[in-house]
Amino acid sequence: MKRKDGSGKINRRQEILKAAERLVLTRGLSGITTRQISEEAGCSEGALYVHFKGRLELLLAMLEESLPEMLGALRALHQEVGRGSPQENLATALRGVFKFHQRATPRVAGLFADPELHAAFRASLSRQNKGPHLSLKVLEDYIAAEQGLGRIDPRVDSQLAAYVLMSSSFFRAFSEQFFGRPMRPAWGKLVEQLIAAVAPTVDATK
User: Is residue 80 part of a domain?
Assistant: First the structure.
């Protein structure tokens, strides 16, 4: 189905980006050419250059626009400090983070095979002040805030706990993509076990 803008005209730029995304998911980033993308989009290669200066700019735009911000899955956490169960709040946030990692992993894995695109993507994230470090900080700050309220064990290293939770999500998403099958236990169950281990409630008996 052709995407149209508000005027009812076909949005050729979005069609090209979607075509590039489909090729990345089926062939990987490395080796994809502007000719292949234009053929997939059903347009001439010249039409592609109307919207993008070249392959690098096109693929960079595809990466930036096809990936939602991981912060979106964590945005509500700061509003949940002191409300409900901190473990349930973290589990809800981490389910959103895992969905992001499932979507992001196959799209960014090929960056390491394309140094020029990798460098451009890294520079773009830096200019926009984006990156996984921000999401880690949100998790860390939330855990620390709940510790301040006595709702998470104060002996927990909030930075380490955030790192363990985030890296576990990424590794699970990577492993499932790599082997092509879901792992057990399911992420929803595993994340509850992880949170209980790295960010437990205060033990009232001690």
Answer: yes
**pTM, whole model, 2 decimals?**
0.81
% pLDDT > 90, the chain: 50
pLDDT mean across residues, the chain: 87
Same domain for 95 and 79, yes or no, is yes
Q: Which residue range(s) make up the domain with 59? A: 12-64
Structure confidence at residue 156 as a pLDDT band (50, 70, 90)? very high
Q: Say if CB 117 and CB 56 are below 8 A apart.
A: yes
Which residues are within 8 A (CB) of 164 and not within 5 positions of it... i.e. 6 or more apart? Answer: 194, 198
Q: Is 4 helix (H, G, I), strand (E, B) or coil?
A: strand
| Total tally of structural domains belonging to the chain | 2
Residue 22 DSSP class: H
Instruction: Report CA 27 to chain centroid distance, whole Å.
Output: 20
